[in-house]
Amino acid sequence: MKTAPQTLDEFMAVALAMENEAVDRYTEFADMMETHNNGDVAAMFRTMAGYETKHARQIMDQMGWQSAPAVPRKIVCWPGYESPEAAPIDDVHYLMQPYHALQLALAAEQRAEAFFGQLAGMTTNDSVRAAALEMQAEEAEHVALVQAWMAKVPQPDSDWSDDPDPPRYID
Ligand code: ZN
Known about the structure:
The chain is mainly alpha-helical and 171 residues long. The chain has helices at 8-35, 39-63, 98-122, 126-150. Zinc ion binds next to helix 3 and helix 4.
């Protein structure tokens, strides 16, 4: 991010873009896991996508938007190429267990939380700061939720990625 959003509209456009990207990514993961008959993990990613969808809808309602506005180019400059809340696709493994899926989600939610915190510190606009702090608090809730979930699922063995019957790909 080069420039902090100057107005609440700009800020909320950034926040919405982030949530929508998170929805897309979690849904993409869920689809991938379904392809590999990994139903448990697919369900987990769908639930995360559901949280982010709710969050995105909340922003739209709050702003009275019918569709997502374009984000000013000068602002959208994520730390990497991807939005902080989008878990990297390379980290997905077809044999991954719920615990791994949650690890990915945890990292994404923590990045989102840090991002909004950083933004709150950068902005000189009071309404943007207030909105950024609110988003940060909501992401912190997602973090806590994922952590609570992680405490309930079994921890994977070290040989979790050994496949006795590896998939064969036919071109
Ligand atoms: Zn989130």
